[in-house]
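Posting this for the archive.
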Amino acid sequence: IAATKTVSPGGPQQPGATLTYTIVCTNIGEGTATAVNVTDQIPDGTKLVVGSLVFISTPPGGSYVMVSHDGGKTYDSYYTEPMTHGRWTIPAMGPGESVTMEFKVVIQPW
């Protein structure tokens, strides 16, 4: 699996600005990848926008998203503070298949 991550808008931003992170994962292997977990940390100094941890492209059936509140040790579906990581789970990705995911954060004042 190959992954790329982008953020919009780019460059320096002020507290209160909303950043959108987009992750694209592609199965570059020759076989089907199963039980794919894509995990990303919520950036320090930001707060996850509730409900923004989503699939942009249509994922395979059975895909779901969860959040961690303890630094990525455990995950659940409750958007309660603190939220430290997001995880997208994809049951299977065929060769050459790509899945696009997204989350939004708000930069917090220092």
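Strands lie at 2-8, 18-26, 33-41, 46-48, 54-55, 64-68, 85-93, 98-107. The chain has no helices and eight strands.
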